[in-house]
Amino acid sequence: MTRNPATTAARLSVAPMMDWTDRHCRYFHRLMSRRALLYTEMVTAPALVRGGAVHLLDHDAAEHPVALQLGGSDPAELAEAARIGADHGYDEINLNVGCPSDRVQSGCFGAVLMERPGLVAECVAAMIAAQPVDVTVKCRIGVDDQDPAQVLPDFLTRISDAGVRRVTIHARKAWLQGLSPKENRDIPPLDYALVHAMKAQFPQLHISINGGIATLDAAAPHLDGLDGVMIGRAAYHQPWDILGRADSAVFGEADPLQSPQQAVHAMLPYIERHLSQGGKLHQVTRHMLGLFAGRPGARHWRRTLSEGVSKEGAGPDLVLQALEAVDAQHQAAQ
Fold first, then answer.
1. pTM of the model
2. Per-residue pLDDT averaged across 203-216, rounded?
3. Rounded to whole angstroms, how far apart are CA atoms 49 and 86?
4. Residue 38 burial (CB count, 10 A)
5. For residues 90 and 82, what is the distance between their CA atoms, to the nearest angstrom?
6. Residue 67 DSSP SS3
7. Which DSSP helix (H) or strand (E) runs through 124?
8. N or C: which end of the chain has fewer CB within 10 A?
9. DSSP letter string over 241-288?
10. CA dist., res. 324 & res. 173, Å (int)
11. What is the mean pLDDT of the chain?
């Protein structure tokens, strides 16, 4: 297998999450981990190819290794979207075969494609042929009344035969009828054993596991048998707990920062640059609210940022004010 930066980084990745993993979030996450693989929010192939929305692909060079997640079901359109993504410098192009939202189903992409493995194989084959970057898949173990033990091996066989070498498996079914997208993240039972069994059955595939993994300690046993772990909401809501020690715990390298306070100071030049370009403070700081989760001053941090961002002239000084409240609480707790 040819090793590109994304393959190595996929030992720990932050899941693509709509309205969360935008470019500001990814820049913030990258400050805490040099090594973890970061993903964009899902971008639909029609938006790029028919809508010309290439601004959705904007990213900072500091974000690498970074992957673009695409949604779609038309092989030619996905091929063109993948080519556009590769031209914009992404290290990986990922096809979404896991999102259970109604909007995604109506567009015939996301988890509903688990019912059409032949079409998924056509899509990834076209994407691979169109450009030089690795094409990967993020999927569920099945949908609705499917038997995962039957459908998942067939699905993996088809995409592997089409040229896919890396896959991330969310270890739950998606219930397309009767459960909301939010409920689909929690209610269907997890089947970690099935994902581990797939690695034994498909040793040639780089397999990462996703779903219900909320700490690095919980990730560790999976890394004994699988190639990677993808963490979603916990990496967003407790970014320091996941990413602040990811490089040392997962990759055996020195962590770039030693405290969440350092992460705040490291973000200030980025915030100043964003504001100087006409951006709004909340576009960045909303991704930083969980930085001190579980630590003294966390509530003051969230409150100061949340209440202050809408005020005229809000900028780096507000962030430093919020940090002072954290430091005061931390000292009081000593």
1. 0.94
2. 98
3. 14
4. 27
5. 10
6. strand
7. helix 117-130
8. C
9. HHHTTHHHHHHSS--S-SSHHHHHHHHHHHHHHHHHTT--THHHHGGG
10. 45
11. 94
Tokens of 72: 């779609």
State mean pLDDT over 257-285: 97
CA distance 272 to 291: 19
Alpha carbon of 334 to those of 92, 262, 295, 329, 331: distances in Å? 45, 19, 12, 9, 5
Structure token pair of residue 162:
């089409």
User: Residue 158: CA atoms inside 13 Å, Cβ hemisphere, count?
Assistant: 18
1 has pLDDT over 60: no
- Nearest CA to 244 out of 5, 15, 29, 24 is that of 29
Task: With beta carbons less than 8 A apart as the criterion, state whether 127 and 94 touch.
Answer: no
**Measured CA angle at 213 (ends 237, 133), to 5 deg:** 90
CB atoms within 10 A of CB 130: 20
Residue 174 host element (H or E): strand 166-174
Q: 192-201 and 148-161 helices cross at what angle (nearest 10)?
A: 40
Q: What is the mean pLDDT of residues 47-76?
A: 96
- Catalytic-labelled residue, pool 99, 108, 123, 139: 99
In this structure, what are the phi and psi dihedrals at residue 258, rounded to the nearest 5 degrees?
A: -110, -5
**Residue 99 annotated to the active site:** yes
Whether 138 and 168 have beta carbons less than 8 Å apart is answered as yes
